Amino acid sequence: MARVVEATGAVIQPTCSDILPEHLGVCGKFGERQVGGERFNFFTDCPATKTCTLVLGGGAEQLIAEVERSLHDAIMIVKRAIQNRTIVAGGGAYEIVVLSCVDRFIHHHVRDKRQTIIKSFAKALEVIPC
Questions:
Q1: What sign for the dihedral angle of Cα 57, 58, 59, 62?
Q2: DSSP 3-state helix, strand, coil percentages of the chain (rounded to 5)?
Q3: Which helix (H) or strand (E) holds 42?
Q4: CB of 89 within 8 A of CB of 102?
Q5: Is pLDDT at 130 greater than 60 in this prediction?
Q6: Model-level pTM greater than 0.70?
Q7: How many CA atoms lie within 13 A of 98 on its CB side?
Q8: pLDDT band at 96 (very low <50, low <70, confident <90, very high)
Q9: Could you give the C-alpha distances from 114 to 107, 110, 124, in angstroms and in order?
Q10: How far is CA 75 from the centre of its chain?
């Protein structure tokens, strides 16, 4: 309920009487859809939206838990990147940059049989485990 109030700009009222126009929220489109065996309310084009909700579905509960953990990790990485504005390359990024530089060097400077040896070295950089 709190997320709907925040997204639409509505105000929670303790009773149904005395509801004024300023208590009402706004959304561009509202719909109810069935996803799997459950029904969900979808609020779209809300002017005050700062969040979104992902609906995960799958066969096994362990699979959904793993997807949820992966999504959380990805969201936290983006959040930290936005906050810190400093990113350290990882996941084999340096090896790929070196591979690119070696390939460029071979293309421009090596025209003999050494090219095969240097290409083999460059290819080995692609398979270095991260």
A1: negative
A2: 50, 10, 40
A3: strand 38-44
A4: no
A5: no
A6: no
A7: 13
A8: confident
A9: 12, 7, 16
A10: 6
